[in-house]
Structure to design on (731 residues):
């Protein structure tokens, strides 16, 4: 099977993508949304034409609310990002935006989150990420506990960890590059998407591993001597179709979600799309060949 | 086969029933604030001044007090939750959902006051009933005796009057003195106990009370008396609250989001169905029926529980439509393999279900792990996603396996003709 045979090529491709992603993380940094760092987003729409942005910018600068970012949205609206506003500050800001009611407006959305709540959520997210990875690895190790020859069950777990890290790092990097050019934030929905990707990626990996397990069992029953490399290669090629097809159905719904599902979940769908593609790739081209590599390492030592 | 055929009929009837149920008015879908429009306020309660053991009781009372205030404001179906301190948070929080409210200034002012307990004398010569515009000061005179002077309230039962529940109050030293002075000077008058500006009980002073012990006897039932005791005990505690988060969503954004979600869901379903039918043919068609069943059962469950649907929740459900057919794909691929090995169609279907089960089970467990952790991560957006996603995994295991098995076995399986080979084949190659 070419996947196992040319595994070094696929490893290299993954390594390059990982390096690019890590570079993007350090170079562009994480643009956290207000749910993680605290702050206020105010979205308004005007009943008539919206006022000139420069006018509003000037007036907002006069306030003592620190830096602000004002962006037009839709036909007649603005989105304003500031530090967390108090109630009084909110009223002042709204009267500036409506130019003392000269331009009547409706508040479409007002999100204000304190910095403490934000940093808590950030810690919670990191923990959630760690817990999901840990649980999945433990579960895989448990599910494959009866496999011991020729690779120990924890090595299935190992290969899964590498695949999982791969599936966290690359979509994160791609998303950071995307938002650097198109705008967007790392918010709690992003974390949700990453966690969902983890669940999914392992889903696909299990299908291949399960086949390896089955082949190992039948080989043992029939006392067939077979190279581990051949077993894994056979398993990958037999499950290739279903790995791709299960991803295709998810890919299709995500495309629908991305294009039709509305603004609130668009970036969420995008991260998931990155994740489904990378996750399917990693199950076939990274996790399974890694089993072979781990077995080879074991033989050497 | 006969058995499977009758079950198939039952399933089709069930499909129709669920379809009717979902479009019916019964158990309407519950939409989250981000879809229905409204406001969520997050308060931090300052619990520094009270002992650890009293915190949860105090938070419950705070919740009651704020619930009362919100009801006063006339909000329909407010949801108020206490979020206790935990591993990630040292703060006790109160989360107040106000559906449909977007003008929040007044609500914030009303909610923001610290709960107060005070004792006031009723003015004499009051004959008219309170009107909407009358204030507390029109009826009651302040005595200076407040919850600050109360050390505790206890629920007791009056032995003389057949076990009627009474509430006894114990003041601290300073309070006892004040209380005895008030009662001495005002025998025969009404001394109202006012929680949050609302008289909760209006006992009459019968005699001077020294020693700082007062008894409120009224026509309480035990439950009322218990609530009163709790309110007195904890409502008396000053528990300052501070607004730490506000989220307001106007109704138009929500409506747009709902419509977009429905549209995306429908197209997602259509694309998946087309893919299944084009690739897997007859089994693909069966899987599409199972998928419709999945969609309808899930929506019915969302209505029944009820699950609060948010934009993220809808996204989770749409994602789960794509994942629900995973089990079918695993089964069909396995079936195809078994057919290639020369098994008969019936055997192949049996083996397909049997052998694919292990990988279906294992992979779904990993999805459930994710859903559980996400639920725990728990901001409302994430919870919505985790809930629809997790329920989706569970329901899809039933529909993808049981429902599609029933239909597949209900089909004639002669298996030798070209037509049936085509129908049960898949992909581009024969």
């Amino acid at each position: 099977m070419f996947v196992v045979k040319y595994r070094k090529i696929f490893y290299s491709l993954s390594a390059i993508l990982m390096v690019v992603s890590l570079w993007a993380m350090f170079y562009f940094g994480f643009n956290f949304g207000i749910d993680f760092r605290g702050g206020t987003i105010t979205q308004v729409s005007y009943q008539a034409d919206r006022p000139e942005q420069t006018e509003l910018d000037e007036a907002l600068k006069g306030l003592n609310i620190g830096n602000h970012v004002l962006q037009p949205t839709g036909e007649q609206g603005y989105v304003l990002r500031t530090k967390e506003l108090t109630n009084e500050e909110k009223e002042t800001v709204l009267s500036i935006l409506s130019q003392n009611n000269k331009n009547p407006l409706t508040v479409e959305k007002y999100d204000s989150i304190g910095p403490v709540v934000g940093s808590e959520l950030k810690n919670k997210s990191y923990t959630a990420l760690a817990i999901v990875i840990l649980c999945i690895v433990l579960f895989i190790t448990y599910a494959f506990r009866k496999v011991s020859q020729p690779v120990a069950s924890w090595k299935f777990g190992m290969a899964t960890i590498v695949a999982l890290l791969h599936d966290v790092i690359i979509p994160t990097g791609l998303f950071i590059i995307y938002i650097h050019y198109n705008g967007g934030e790392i918010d709690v929905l992003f974390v949700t998407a990453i966690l969902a990707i983890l669940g999914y990626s392992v889903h696909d990996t299990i299908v291949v591993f399960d086949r390896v397990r089955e082949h190992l069992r039948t080989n043992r029953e029939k006392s067939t001597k077979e190279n581990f490399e051949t077993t894994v290669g056979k398993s990958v090629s037999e499950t290739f179709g279903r790995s791709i097809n299960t991803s295709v159905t998810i890919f299709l719904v995500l495309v629908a979600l991305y294009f039709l599902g509305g603004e609130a979940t668009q970036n969420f769908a995008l991260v998931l799309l990155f994740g489904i593609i990378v996750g399917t790739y990693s199950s076939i081209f990274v996790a399974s060949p890694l089993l072979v590599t781990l077995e080879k390492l074991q033989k050497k030592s | 086969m006969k058995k499977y055929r009758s079950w198939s009929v039952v399933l089709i009837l069930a499909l129709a029933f669920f379809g009717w149920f979902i479009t019916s008015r019964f158990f309407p879908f519950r939409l989250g604030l981000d879809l229905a429009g409204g406001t969520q306020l997050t308060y931090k309660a300052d619990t520094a001044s009270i002992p650890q053991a009293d915190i949860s009781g105090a938070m419950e009372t705070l919740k009651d007090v704020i619930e009362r205030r919100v009801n006063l404001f006339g909000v329909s179906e407010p949801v108020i939750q206490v979020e206790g301190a935990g591993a990630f948070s040292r703060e006790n929080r109160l989360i107040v959902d106000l559906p449909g409210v977007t003008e929040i200034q007044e609500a914030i002012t009303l909610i923001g006051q610290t709960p107060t307990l005070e004792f006031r004398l009723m003015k004499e010569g009051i004959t008219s009933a309170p009107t909407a515009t009358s204030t507390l000061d029109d009826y009651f005179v302040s005595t200076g005796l407040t919850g600050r002077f109360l050390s505790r309230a206890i629920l007791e039962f009056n032995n003389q009057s057949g076990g009627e529940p009474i509430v006894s109050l114990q003041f601290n030293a300073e309070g006892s003195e004040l209380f005895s002075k008030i009662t001495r000077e005002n025998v025969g008058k009404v001394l109202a106990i006012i929680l949050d500006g609302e008289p909760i009980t209006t006992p009459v002073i019968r005699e001077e009370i020294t020693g700082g012990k007062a008894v409120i006897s009224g026509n309480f039932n035990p439950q009322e008396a218990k609530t009163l005791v709790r309110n007195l005990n904890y409502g008396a505690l000053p528990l300052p609250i501070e607004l730490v988060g506000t989220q307001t969503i106007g109704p138009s954004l929500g409506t747009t989001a709902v419509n977009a979600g429905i549209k995306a869901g429908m197209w997602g379903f259509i694309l998946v169905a087309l893919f299944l039918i084009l690739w897997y043919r007859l089994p693909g068609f069966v899987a599409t029926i199972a998928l419709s069943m999945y969609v309808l059962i899930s929506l019915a469950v969302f209505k029944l529980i009820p699950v609060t649907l948010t934009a993220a929740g809808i996204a989770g459900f749409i994602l789960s439509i794509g994942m629900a057919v995973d089990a079918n794909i695993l089964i069909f691929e396995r079936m195809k393999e078994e057919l290639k090995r020369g098994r008969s169609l019936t055997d192949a279907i049996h083996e397909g279900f049997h052998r694919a089960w292990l990988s279906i089970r294992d992979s779904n467990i990993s999805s459930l792990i994710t859903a559980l952790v996400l639920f725990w991560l728990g901001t409302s957006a994430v919870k919505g996603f985790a809930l629809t996603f997790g329920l989706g995994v569970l329901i899809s295991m039933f529909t993808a396996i049981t429902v599609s098995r029933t239909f597949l076995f209900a089909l004639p399986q002669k298996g030798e003709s070209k037509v049936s080979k085509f129908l049960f084949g898949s992909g581009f190659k024969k």
